[in-house]
Design goal:
The chain is built from five helices and 21 strands. By secondary structure, the protein is of the alpha+beta class. The protein has two domains: about 190 residues, DNA ligase/mRNA capping enzyme (D-amino Acid Aminotransferase, Chain A, domain 1, 2-Layer Sandwich); about 90 residues, Beta Barrel (OB fold (Dihydrolipoamide Acetyltransferase, E2P)), CATH 2.40.50. The strands form five sheets. Strands 3, 4, 5, 8, 9 and 10 form a six-stranded mixed sheet that branches. A hairpin with a 2-residue loop joins strand 3 and strand 4. The chain starts with 5 loop residues before the first strand and ends with a strand.
Length: about 280
């Protein structure tokens, strides 16, 4: 299944616009699912066949035994926590033994959220506007325990953005209703991340390649690489030489007295921050 998925560009702030629909951005495994003669084939964003990884998704609730090609995301919802868990999903993606996968598909099943339909009974739908493809998606498949059509809100991006509270929902995606499905990145789809913020201390830096070790309340919580301007890097390096405490093969350690504000998407169960970005120094 060699088809380049459509990808969003980044936008910093949410907005309202009647030309768009807005969907939650669920942190999951982007999958294209082709159903032909009742048999499902699942492929990752890079085109790798992952059909055997998700047995619970083999029966797609298409209407009238249609042949379809769906675009969407597989995600794990932790019912006990009431939120999506990207960490649990990554554990599932790493499974290789068929028995382990079978057991997980029963006790910890993933859900698939379909947000687009690209083919229907042999007809290529990519040249149709998104509004029309969404209407066809409603006709082509039903919802069940494993499959869901992605929720979308017309025009009111700010409202959806403010409503997001769940772990594993990274923000919103804005999609122009008149956009065709074009492979690769497109400004017709826009991602607005729902960032969280924290004040941290810098406890060291990488010897090879750039990265600052982050610490909060005495616990290592990750490495920040993104968003640090050149002058800030130089200022830190100048100060760091006076507060060195040691080193190993990979890192040089400093007294954690330099504070910074970061933003990030979520935390793992161990407290590590995902996708941290530097905002500014504090103090």
């Amino acid at each position: 299944m060699q088809l380049i998925p459509m990808m969003p560009e980044l936008r910093e702030k949410p907005f309202n616009d009647e030309r768009y629909i807005f969907e939650p951005k669920i942190d999951g495994h982007r999958l294209m699912i082709r159903v032909k003669n009742g048999i499902a084939q699942l492929c990752s964003r890079s085109g790798i066949d992952v059909t055997m990884q998700y047995p619970e998704l083999w029966r797609v609730p298409v209407v009238g035994a249609a042949d379809v090609l769906l675009d969407g995301v597989a995600a794990f919802f932790d019912e006990s926590a009431g939120s999506f868990s990207s960490e649990a999903l990554r554990e599932r993606m790493r499974m290789r033994k068929s028995m382990d996968i079978r057991i997980a598909s029963v006790h910890s099943p993933v859900h698939y959220f379909a947000f687009d339909i690209l083919e229907w009974n042999g007809k290529d739908l990519r040249g149709l506007p998104l509004k029309q493809r969404k209407q066809l998606l409603e006709k082509a498949m039903d919802d069940n325990r494993s499959y869901h059509r992605m929720f979308a809100l017309d025009a009111e991006g700010k409202r959806l953005y403010e409503a997001i509270r769940s772990e594993g929902v990274d923000g919103i995606i804005a999609k122009r209703l008149d956009s065709i499905y074009a492979g690769g990145r497109s400004e017709n789809w826009l991602t607005v991340h729902k960032y969280r913020y924290a004040q941290v201390r810098i406890a060291g830096y990488r010897k090879h390649g750039f990265g600052w070790l982050l610490e909060r309340e005495g616990q290592r919580i990750g490495i920040v690489e993104a968003g640090v301007p050149g002058p800030h890097r130089q200022a830190f390096q100048g100060t760091a030489q006076a507060i060195l405490t040691g080193e190993d093969r990979d890192y040089v350690y400093v007294k954690p007295i330099i504070e910074a504000k970061i933003r990030f998407l979520s935390r793992t169960s161990s407290g590590t921050v995902r996708n941290p970005e530097f905002v500014r120094f504090v103090g």
